[in-house]
Amino acid sequence: MQDVMTKSMARNIFYGGSLFFILIFLGLSWHSHRHIVTKSTASMPLTESVAAGKRVWENNACINCHTILGEGAYFAPEVGNVMTRWGVLDDPEAAFDVMKGWMEAQPTGVPGRRQMPNFDLSDEEIRDLTNFLIWTDHIDAQGWPPNDAG
What we know:
Strand content: under 5%
Distance between the termini: 62 Å
Helix content: 40-55%
Number of domains: 2
Low-confidence stretches: none
CATH architecture of the largest domain: Orthogonal Bundle
Number of strands: 2
Mean pLDDT: 90
Structural class: mainly alpha
Number of helices: 5
CATH superfamily of the largest domain: Cytochrome c-like domain
């Protein structure tokens, strides 16, 4: 065996390796397109109100303070299971009332406690956000968050 790699050896390694990884890439792309999941992992349907609630969540940058299913900032509580924690998961009207009361009471002004700003959301926006959080609470998150407090 030679101690020095020739130009043709280097070229063959380059082309062979490139072909190998292109075939791997194409195979994985085919596999992912063939196995696309087309249904939601939530046990609830995705409604227009849920989608509008997601827009409220995004437009008000809630993720800058809260986490949802572990994604986001850790300044404020996890909200992926907030409806379960509040005990209103199966009662959308009670969930709306609790959420409306909470949102309108902010900031609480309690000294030494983190304060959530008042976003002056309309009743429709609060209802949509509530429906989004109820929908998120129904997602099969496989045990996340790891504790009830989020």
